[in-house]
Amino acid sequence: MHSLLLVSTAGLLAGAMNALAGGGSFISLPALIAAGVPPVQANASSTVALFPGGLASAWAYREGLGAGLGNRVGDGLARGLGSRSIKRSEQTNAVSLRALLLTTLCGGFVGAALLMATSSAAFSFVLPWLLLLASLALAFGRRLGEALRSRWPIRARAVLAVQFALGIYGGYFGGAVGIMMIAMWGLLDTRDLKSLNAPRTLLVSAAYAVAVLTFIVAGAVRWPETLAMLTAAGIGGYAGAQLGRRLPAAVIRTGTLALTFCITLVFFARTYAPGLLQR
């Protein structure tokens, strides 16, 4: 009963955090581990628990995707990325949303399969570094694309290769993967960030959907804890959305970054401090 209360509270906070700024897995994953779920199962269960909230966000953004996923950029957001940052004669380098979607699905499956092949000891060892990577993405990801685009614009093949890698990351761990996608797309496209929310949400949900199916088939989900967290995350997501309308963006961002970096430091200490103290 105590563990279910813990994961329910974490789900409430994680759902609210995802609605406000992202990074809900920083709450849900540590809570599941603290509740006694082995790290690999905890990561799988966290992904399943938070997936419906992301799916609801993708549905909310459906109008921003338009009707067609297979056309090139030039006439609308739904048709891909890259039209505003390349010359008209080079628009064959634009990336269609369909290509990004298929690439992300493949990467998500590979990432989920890799997680299933990872031992709990190995995952515990790399988890602090994954949390650090996600923290840095939350802190600097949105500025990275703008800073790099002026120096190293990239072509469609490179975008798809990086998107495949991000799909793997999303299926394996997934923390702040949406921010990473926007940072990468910033190398190819000059649209404002708000207009990229629709494809970002769709592709993150695609990576998670493949991972969720893989985890369920592999029997890697702890259902009592997952269902409790899933229900609470839905409530937290709604409450977070309402709260986000009232709180200043700077307050939300500062609080989110402070929390994520603190949790990252705790996991570094938890993983590596015992070994250092024995020396």
Automatic annotation (TrEMBL):
It is a multi-pass membrane protein. It is found in: Cell membrane. The chain crosses the membrane at residues 95-115, 121-140, 160-188, 200-220, 250-269. The keyword Iron-sulfur does not apply. GO terms for cellular component: plasma membrane. Keywords: Cell membrane, Membrane, Signal, Transmembrane, Transmembrane helix, Transport. It comes from the Bacteria. Coiled coil: none annotated. Residues 1-21 form the signal peptide. It holds the Pfam family TauE. Belongs to the 4-toluene sulfonate uptake permease (TSUP) (TC 2.A.102) family. This is Probable membrane transporter protein.
